[in-house]
Amino acid sequence: MILSLPARCYLLAGAGGRGRIHDRRRVAMVVRAAVLTELLLHGRIADHDGEVSVTGRGATGDLLLDDVLAGLAEDGARSWRSLVRRDGPDTLKSLELQLAAAGLLRRRPTRFLGRPVLEVADPAVAHHERVRAEAALRTPLSDVDERDAAVAALAAVAALGLSRREARSHSRRLAELGERAGPAVPALRHLVRGLRLARAWAVNPGG
Question: Can you tell me the mean pLDDT for 143-165?
Fold first, then answer.
């Protein structure tokens, strides 16, 4: 099965948490950034002076990408940051339904009010994505596939699957991978930084 960038980023996010997805707000941002990056690589959108514009229509072969693309066409040009931020929870839920239908996610009951949680059905799939992301950090840059570059860059920005320590150790390579991935990466970086600052302020308002 050929997985989309948002699917790969989601599965990578589950690589370090026993298949569970934690911090859904942050994961939703990464998924949105991955959707935009996938559309960019498909040639369906382009960057014009910091704004996203639709350059191609028609089915992409992925229902989630098609839905987001249709929304972009209706709304007109918008900034990358606004589009990474926009509709994150809905996009995340749509992706989870898609992955569950494909058998890549499963529901597991919990003791907390009997509410089920979604988890990666096969941890080896998530581990495989982590291995690919790590390889993108060490393989000669010319040999790194553009989608592997995008997954590694997006995941590192949000510390999903790749830790902040790993990101610091490979900062130069990640900057190179981010350039190949496109404008969604710096947009995501700005939003993740803002989320961290907001949470730090909530914990220590006077700090």
Answer: 90
